[in-house]
Known about the structure:
mainly alpha, two-stranded antiparallel ribbon, 2 strands, 2 domains
Amino acid sequence: MAPTSLLHRTAGHKPALALFSALAAAWVFLLVALGAFTTSIGAGMAFPDWPLSNGSLNPSGWLTDLSMFAEHSHRLSAGMMTALTIILAAWLWRTEARAWLRRLSYFAVGLVVAQAVVGGLRVLYDSVEVRVVDTSLGQLFAMLHACLAQAMACALIAIAASCSGAWITRPLPVGRRVRRAGVACCVLLFAQLGVGAVVRHSFAGLAIPTFPWSTPGGGLLPGEWSFRVGIQFAHRAMACVLAAAVLGFALAVWRDRAAPIAMRAGASVLVGLLALQILLGAAIVLTLRSASTTTGHVLVGAVTLATAFWLTWLAHRDAMERAPAP
Length: 326
């Protein structure tokens, strides 16, 4: 450990650190988009080895083959994400006085390492079948990989928000109702994205081939049930619950007199993202899982969670800043 005299820790606004943390938070969405596109075109196993691609950091032909390009670009962007997260944690350790923020950055490093390892296991165990869910062990790791990506996005959003000048200089005394509604909304969104990951990686995207009803005759419930039908139906049912939760959260923000204009605008954006996500979900069925539509659905889902989490994190700003010093 470096001597205390070599550390210059303060809790004030550091513009360069704030910019870098925002860059790291933005990068995770590029990673999510590349991962979603790779899965959508079935390129997750374009290379059967890991951590190298065909034994190389620059495999032959990856710039001209779409599947190889998608998977290798995803791996390269993941490497950049790891570097950005480690640099951010080191920067915070060196300069940040708030112990809880330093610990959050260490947690983000743990997440990005776990994400990389799980991504590798997805490749290495793809051939091991799990009959109970009619998929492979590699696909189960892919589901976990997708969930860890959402957690990583939230951690980096929290760090970036906490490094911003507005966070440091402006108290946000919003009411308990906003905080509770935000936490409930984030929990439901994360659960929905987890269910969506199971849908994608168990190949259940078209298990119910009609929308919005579950049968061609307009039935609410599917005519026949299987694991894939059940998980697809659960995804649709959860979307209805989420719609109510997001609208309730937005109303709580709009009605809270202490909520600043940024939070009110964010609540409006959240409602818009919800509507777009529902439309993209319908379009997946109508376009028979178009790669671009499916990728957009995954990306908008991640942005929706990030927006809800950002609002919820802001609502807890005062409680975080009152955390005792180490």
